[in-house]
Amino acid sequence: MSEERYIGAIDQGTTGTRFMVFDHDGQVVANAYQKHEQVYPEPGWVEHKPQEIWENTKEVIDAALTEAGIGSEQLDAIGITNQRETTLIWDRESGKPIHNAIVWQDRRTTDRVEQLQDEGKEGWIREKTGLEPDAYFSATKAEWLLDNTDQIKLQRMRPDDVRDRAEQGELLFGTIDSWLIYKLTGEHITDVTNASRTMLFNIHEMDWDEELLEEFGVPEAILPEVRPSSDENHYGYTDADGFLGAEVPVAGALGDQQAALFGQTCFDEGDAKNTYGTGSFMLMNTGDEAVESEHGLLTTVGFQRSGEPVKYALEGSIFITGAAIEWLEDMTLIDDAAETEELARSVDSTDGVYFVPAFAGLGAPHWDQRARGTIVGMTRGTRREHVVRAVLESIAFQTRDVAEAMESDSGIDLTTLRVDGGAVKNNFLCQLQANIVGTDIARPVVDETTALGAAYAAGLAVGYWETVDELRDNWHVDSEFQPESPGDVEQRYGRWTDAVERSLDWARDGGE
């Protein structure tokens, strides 16, 4: 009897790293997770330690395989999914980062983005990249690293500066997928979805854009090779003499939100999903067409399989949702996330309280880098239950903001929204979401769809799965929530819009 074969997936997220192993039915057979440190050097700055992420990656792979009794030689392939936009630069020869990674939430380059806006370059950037100029994306982060990293951080006593070494190709730029591919295989590669989030990549020509590289002073010599998300040629192989002890192909990579789109089997035009993580990200497959948004959404690459055309997507990026629940814990209003459902149900309403979680500015469809977190409508009678319910409602309201923009841009009415991520375990939130958006909410049995999408991409590349129809057959609904329309939904949504207005443009003149 032959031993079982599996596909592994590294899911490197904002707060931690997970390794999951899936079987042919798309079921989880191994799972391990490790958090990493969040570094806040200054207000509005967020960094991660790349070496810590790599060490954690090795630990969770080892822990998952050991706990499940699976040998590394039983892995047919490994896929990678990652927090997008988070940027690092490392030394090609030593493999050492020149600085901590700058996280997608980081706002240190806000002034640089406003300079681009003042120079009238918004439309120019949007036309090439599909992105709204924002400190969220990688371009200004890479520019900052090249301009501000002290030479001593390079671990070498060299007279030349960081930019000179970058021009010579002695340094390498990447998002977290590139960093992990490099550490696993020694190859400097990214996939089309992650490249499309850098604000350096032309999504129509599907190549690094020379004019954007010049604008941000990013040398072409430091850029990774861009490959399909599911690559039959493989990105590389793990070292048989390395920590894994086997030569396993690394054959798939997608940014986390595109991975969730893939894992939710949104392969057809009009399919949509929303992932509730640190932030929430709603994507709709628009097929072969890069649909330009007129309502504050992003046009992005959805995925690409070897030898096939790129599939595009519309995306609504909501910066803070799950992180708002973490904030409730930080403020000791709750002990853990699971408590929010009971507390929210214990009151009939928020009693007029509205919470706008603009801790890192507001993303789609508002795009205000200087918006800040706001609570309005409190009275002396406001209790923590009202605030907790207002936080959950803010997640649902932000999703409606994006859903309305998406329907307007695409001309497609949402009938069902597939959901995933940690917060969808909360039945109250799922029902609230159905009520506020006015569409069915479908929660799948396997809700770790981000890791599943990376596994699917790698597995298709090596023939573990032959067709996407096999993947569709793996998708099963756990629960479906249909809209129940309380009469006050529209009134509450109107008041939410008023609350958002009060959060806008706050962080000025020392308002950070």
Automatic annotation (TrEMBL):
It is an enzyme of class 2 (transferase). NCBIfam families: glycerol_kin (TIGR01311), PRK00047.1 (NF000756). Glycerol binds at residues 84-85, 136, 256-257. Keywords: ATP-binding, Glycerol metabolism, Kinase, Nucleotide-binding, Transferase. One of its GO terms (biological process) is glycerol-3-phosphate metabolic process. It comes from Halopelagius longus. PANTHER family: GLYCEROL KINASE, SUGAR KINASE. ATP binds at residues 14-15, 278, 322, 422. Sn-glycerol 3-phosphate binds at residues 14, 84-85, 136, 256. It comes from the Archaea. Residues 273-461 form the Carbohydrate kinase FGGY C-terminal domain. It catalyses: glycerol + ATP = sn-glycerol 3-phosphate + ADP + H(+). The lineage of its organism: Archaea, Methanobacteriati, Methanobacteriota, Stenosarchaea group, Halobacteria. This is Glycerol kinase. It holds the Pfam family FGGY_N. Residues 6-263 form the Carbohydrate kinase FGGY N-terminal domain. Its EC number is 2.7.1.30.
